[in-house]
Amino acid sequence: MKLNIVKYVFVQAFSSLSRNIWLSTASILTVMLALTLLGSSILFLANTTYVAETFESQIEIAAFLEEDLSSEEVSEIQSQIARLPGVAEIKLTTPEEALAELEKSMGTTTLLEDLGGVNPLPAKFTVMATDAHLVKNLALQIASIDGVAKIRYGQGFFEKLIGFTDWLRWIGLIVVILFSFASLLLIAMNIKTNVNIKENEIQIMRLVGASNSFIRWPFIIEGLLLGLFGALIAVAIVSFSYNSLLQYIVSSLSFIPVVADPDFIKLVLLVMLAYGMGIGVLASVISLSRFLRN
Amino acid sequence: MIKLRHVSKIYPNGARALFNVNIEIEKGEFVFLVGPSGAGKSTLIKLLYREEIATRGQVIIDQINLMRLKPRQIPLLRRKMGIIFQDFKLLPKKTVFENVAFAQQVLGKGKKEITENTLKTLELVGLARKKDCYPLELSGGEQQRVCIARALVNKPSLLIADEPTGNLDVDTAQEIMEIIDKINRLGTTVVMATHALHIVEHMKKRIIRVEEGKIVADSKEEAFIN
After folding, report:
1. Is B40 helix (H, G, I), strand (E, B) or coil?
2. Which residues of A touch B79 (CB under 8 A)?
3. Which residue range is the domain that position A263 belongs to?
4. Listed residue (B195, B194, B226, B218) closest to B21, CA to CA
5. Rg of chain B, C-alpha, whole Å
6. Which residue, A10, B33, B106, B204, is the most exposed by fewest CB within 10 angstroms?
7. How many domains does chain A have?
8. How many CB atoms lie within 10 A of CB A225?
9. What is the pTM of this model?
10. Closest approach of chain A CAs to the CA of B211, in angstroms?
11. Contact at CB, B108 and A8, closer than 8 angstroms
12. How far is residue B193's CA from residue B218's CA, in Å, rounded to a whole number?
């Protein structure tokens, strides 16, 4: 008996899908579009966040000291910086070391002589923060310490990157919501049309005592299938494009860090499938609730 | 089998359809509900299959109090009854056989059982030969017989009919009444609303007269009183 019902439900659902082939196609395509956007947004944001985090973790603050400080003054500044909250590491570079580094990077050993025997480089503290978000504040605090002439950190770029990902997150969210809403409406319209077409059948079903759930199931399965088909196409598109993109980046732009964790990608694709089916079922439930209220 | 106690029905728009109606119908009885259009016959019928719910009073069928019935229990109530209408409510794209089979399909019955029941019921209403026709290829009387078959195929103990002969000529109406009478003689309780008085007079069954939402005459009560 159960098997008869299951068979009936699926036969009905598929025949409804094929009856309004254009409306079904439109529904499937909108779901596909919504989910392709959803999937791409998630992957894009995961990657920009990953890039930002990777670079952020490398941000250091360079604090250049005033000239002619005694070694006591220098160690006093060092202990002042070390006391600041959020300092992970602090390293002193003396003017001599700085000059040696510069010589090394320029491939010369006569830089001091070329400069007329005077080392223009100041002593420098390199400070690493425990958290990238603290960098800016920390930099300002260090700048206000007596004896610190100038500070430098990734001003601008990383802030912009963080701001950019935040901004993208919102845009992505809004676009995904809009398209989800459009898919919801289209599937609901699709189901509603089929409910109207089958009005007589439904009326007869109710009169002969078919349960409400029995009447509802074919429509719910129909919505689920519309969502699922749209989601499957979107999953195919997103996974194919992302994998191609990954291959390209890994082979040609290997300095860009990318999220390539297969479990994470699988999770994103699963979320897309679940989301698609969820939209389909929700749309059916919405379009049926008014009709089958007793 | 059916008890209506002090039943009143006022529609949400304020229309008073029934007022303090009391009826008792025994198992196996054949009852006509008569009265002019708008008297409340259809409302009364709708209360029986719980399409409407009484504003006051009690409607009891087979010891089930319909006032206390939860929406999800309504299908179970309706499986005990067959319902036929003036407008046949057949599915035009399904054959006679499929229309009757459909009523069992939606209750999840098996294919073999469905085929057997359908053929037997079509035999009962005299339509076995036309099982592969579509409703629009049939006469009005034949279409109503399909409806009767559909109403009966799940073997209900109660047949409810709302003006089943309303769209039929006198001779065809007579045929339909003979079938309904036969079903009644086989043990099914019948409640039928009609304003075709020639049928009612001819059949010599219990007649309940409804006017302006009230029971104004009941042939059973009068016989009892007399």
Report:
1. coil
2. 208-209
3. 2-55+159-289
4. B218
5. 18
6. B204
7. 2
8. 20
9. 0.68
10. 27
11. yes
12. 14
